[in-house]
Amino acid sequence: MGLASPLVYVIAPLLLAAQTVSQTAAPGDAEREEMLRLRECLELVETDPEAAHEMAASWTYMEGNRRGARECRASALMALGYLEDGAYELEALANAPDGGSMDDRLTYLFRAGGAWLEIGMPDNAVLTFSNIIRLQPEYSEAYNYRGLAYLQLEEWENAEADLDTAISGQPGDFHAYLYRAQARFWQERYDEAMDDIVQARTLDPEDAQALLWRGHIREARRLIAEGRSVNEMPF
Questions:
Q1: Does any domain span residue 203?
Q2: CATH number at residue 187
Q3: For residue 54, what are the CA distances in angstroms to 30, 31, 74, 103, 216?
Q4: What is the pLDDT of residue 43?
Q5: Cβ contacts of 74 within 8 Å, gap of 6 or more
Q6: Could you list the residue range(s) of the whole structural domain that residue 204 is in?
Q7: Among residues 59, 106, 55, which one has the least CA distance to residue 77?
Q8: What percent of the chain has pLDDT over 70?
Q9: In a domain, 107, yes or no
């Protein structure tokens, strides 16, 4: 169907968010030591994920299944391409008694949700982002990503409803307009879809996906004007 899914946008900021949460806490000595160790591991994930995974295994062996070791292991697994395993680890960590602060738990869930989207498991993504929304109903980005999951499921009305909420919370979110344009396109509401593409291109005039969808909408309008079916479009 040609759905836009810039998953670097989903995944990359979330690993950074994990590091930021760890750095901004105010722990005691033991927690500070664990935080520094986790930071070292997360930095290693970016350069040598295999070594980071070994570090997590050693950490677990020496000190037990500590939260930092589990986050390290999950991050390494995801960097190594085992996104499903990493996502399950992060969700378990988010729900664990020692899962950290609310911000920590939300970060784990957000990263897991991004992984579900990347590997094409939108049902899992909907559940994960729904849990985030339950914990923090004003979290606009969670509606955005759940909307993307609904797009993958071809649940256009649910996608549009979530993207409406995302745009209300973050009117400058390029991707929310791009995704909502797709939800409206598949409901054959081409004028409204084009309005969203115009708004998206105001925010990012050179984005290739926005240009692609502008072309799709124009082609759908042309076919309808000629009395033909949009099913002729090569999706």
A1: yes
A2: 1.25.40.10
A3: 22, 21, 12, 27, 48
A4: 94
A5: 86, 87, 89, 90, 93, 108
A6: 160-235
A7: 55
A8: 88
A9: no
